[in-house]
Amino acid sequence: MGFTVSDEVLGTLVPVAVYWIYSGIFIILGDKLEKYRLHTKAEEVTKNVVSKFTVMKGVFVQQAFQIAISMLLFTIIKDETGVPKRNPPLYIIAMQFVIAMFVLDTWQYFMHRYMHLNKFLYKHIHSKHHILVVPYAFGALYNHPLEGLLLDTIGGALAFLVSGMTPRVGVFFFSFATIKTVDDHCGVWLPINILHLFFSNNSAYHDVHHQLYGTKYNFSQPFFVTWDKIMGTYMPYSLEKRKEGGFEARPIKDIKEN
Question: Which of 196, 43, 217, 164 lies closest to 173 in space, CA to CA?
Fold first, then answer.
């Protein structure tokens, strides 16, 4: 009898593996990405007051919570017959992806924004993520476990349930969402990044939010900027080359103050 792994287990563990593999690519490339950085290494050292080892441990804790809750969710919704659901045609899968992206974007925008507006939640929960003023790839999920539960885990569960995707489709969707989240926090601007062709919510856009002048703006994550534009929290920026190399996302000032 061959060893098989259920789609539910794959849907839980594959995105975790994708997170570290994709983050690892940025680590391996290292100095080769220097001319594409959005902040200098000196800024990363002086502005980020938490060590990378601490960040790594924090992400492991976050992912442990995600794994536990994901397995609990799959156990609750699992078909008692044990027969895996058939995957729908590609056009249905594409529609499910769009629905899931809309649900996840909507949930995360309003929850994320509220965590900034509520001083208690920001001070005791969300500020942990903003310790990384200069974001980098494997710090994408460095946050308070409660924030991870509210934004990522519950948001992902809602996207999965509302879209009606099967666990097998969920493997691909959440792997894609993981790649997008890591890419948004990678701290570099790669001109050949294919994700930038389809999403204006990117590393520079999210970098603006991580700066002190941008904490009231650019709440949208991880896919589109739609809710920021609708709700008046969109901060436009220009991408400028630094003399010492790399890029800088500079806010365009002619916007309303909230």
Answer: 164
Distance, in Å, from the CA atom of 53 to the CA atom of 131, rounded to the nearest integer, reads 14
pLDDT digit string, tens, across residues 124-161: 999 999 999 999 999 999 999 999 989 999 999 999 99
Strand partners, 241: 247
Determine the number of helices (DSSP H) and then strands (DSSP E) in the chain: 11, 2
**Residue 115, token pair as written in the block:** 């965590």
Three-state DSSP state, 145: helix
Q: Cα–Cα distance between 87 and 173 in angstroms, integer?
A: 13
Side-chain half-sphere exposure of 166, counting CA atoms within 13 A = 15
Which phi and psi (to 5°) does residue 240 adopt? -115, 145
Copy the structure tokens of residue 129. 């993520």
What count of other Cβ atoms lies within 10 Å of the Cβ of residue 51?
A: 9
In the predicted model, what is the mean pLDDT of residues 228-251?
Answer: 91
- At residue 25, does pLDDT exceed 70? yes
Whole-number percent of the chain with pLDDT over 90? 71
Token pair, residue 127, equals 């500020």
Question: Using N-to-C axis directions, what is the helix angle for 52-77 and 154-163, rounded to 10°?
Answer: 40
**pLDDT tens, 167-208?**
889 999 999 999 999 999 999 998 889 999 899 999 999 999
Beta carbons within 10 angstroms of residue 235's beta carbon: 20
Could you tell me the sign of the dihedral formed by the alpha carbons of 12, 207, 124, 220, in that order?
A: negative
Rounded Cα–Cα distance for residues 112 and 161 (Å): 21
Q: Is 71 helix (H, G, I), strand (E, B) or coil?
A: helix
